[in-house]
Amino acid sequence: MHNRRTGIAAAACWTAGAGGYLLAEAVAAAHYPGYSYAHDAISDLGTPQSPSAVLMNAGFCLQGAMFLIGAVLAVRAVRPPRPAPVLVFAAANAAGNVLVAAVHSGAGPWHVVGAALAIAGGNLTALAAAPMLRPATVRWASAALGVTGLACAAMWVVTDRLPGPVLERVSVYTIICWQLLAAAALLPAWRERAQRTERDGGGG
């Protein structure tokens, strides 16, 4: 029963972080004249020029906090054999989100460090946590999201032939998608169904 409640709490944290972040971004973008998801960076929404900078930076902090707390609770609920990588990468994501909020774009190198930590940490968490999720389709989806996010982040850094803001958003949204997928996988009904599927030989 304890693990069931802990899993539900982890799912709630990850869902709250993802939902809060997406809501903050949408509101901040709507109030920023001329802002484009395809042509402007996410970090622009947290600069002093953004009318909703406080809201966007609060969204970064909420996402970071909920991501880390959710990871701690998920590890307690599932008890994977190697929890350390999940926790380390989740902590990197949390620290990165706080740095992005504290040092806005253009204010110094720590913003870039924060963005790198948040994006790399979040996508590496998806990879590290994949083995502890059920069924096999969810494990594969978790790994695929992590790889996609890291690949887009790498392309964002090394090439200017593709739109940077789009690559940035994909590398961030893979984390958000993974949170929601992992949150669903931690719900008792999903976990029990996955266990039955694997016992019957259909889930891998």
UniProtKB/TrEMBL annotation:
Keywords: Membrane, Transmembrane, Transmembrane helix. It holds the Pfam family DUF998. It comes from the Bacteria. The chain crosses the membrane at residues 53-74, 86-104, 110-133, 140-158, 170-190. This is DUF998 domain-containing protein. It comes from [Mycobacterium] manitobense. The lineage of its organism: Bacteria, Bacillati, Actinomycetota, Actinomycetes, Mycobacteriales.
